[in-house]
Amino acid sequence: MPSPRTDLFVTGLVLGAGGSSRLGRPKQLLPYRDTTLLGHVIATARACRFHQIVLAIGGAADEVRAHVDLAGADVVVNESYGAGCSSSIAAALGTVDPGCDVIVLMLGDQPGVTVDAVVALLEGRGDAPLALCRYDEGRGHPIAFARSTFGELAHLHGDKGVWRLLGRRADEVTEVEIPGQIPLDVDTPEDYRAVLAQAGLDESAGVHGAARTLA
Asked: With 0-12 CB in 10 A as exposed, 13-18 as middle and 19+ as buried, what is 107?
């Protein structure tokens, strides 16, 4: 397996701007372990010891600021969050440090991503322009983007823009093997239950009010 370059400046980009239209309440604030979905992902990003963390928020931005620990993150508000994840990436790129060599993209509603997965991704990517995780069932986040791709990142569209970019540049994508299931994300109450189950959290036990949020 290729070794990571230690001279690279790595920015962790967390997307937490979703409008939660299908859930009916801000998914960023759903209880998860001793924090919230978004709070857990930000804590994971901190533990990765990135040189910089950029957080894109949009839907329920004021509530997120009030209830989620955003310490250590450069926060960007994406007023166009309804246009999909790509709009949050574009909004955040202006805050990414000019010296950044690699962006690691993490989803704010995907708390199953681990520090070990991020470390493995950075170790396994070598010098690839694009790298993603290959779990037991297929491809998933986090995803790493080298500086040579930043221009294209700024011009993606919709929720699937990143995956279309990966398709266009398929011969430049490195897949890094990560054992286990693809981390789930949250769009509906059923998704939230599945995320809790994947983490081995018992909803019926009232994990910090998790069951009550679905009532």
From this structure: buried
Is residue 213 situated within a structural domain?
Answer: no
Q: One-letter amino acid identity for 117?
A: A
CA 204 from centroid of its chain's CA atoms: 27
Beta-strand pair 73-77/102-107: unpaired
- Classify residue 96: in a domain, yes or no: yes
Tokens of 122: 């950075």
Establish if 162 belongs to a structural domain.
Answer: yes
- Mark the ranges of the chain whose per-residue pLDDT is less than 50: 1-3, 205-215
Q: Which of 4, 2, 166, 11 is nearest to 101 (CA)?
A: 11
Beta strands in the chain (DSSP E): 10-16, 31-32, 35-36, 52-57, 73-77, 102-107, 130-135, 138-146, 173-177
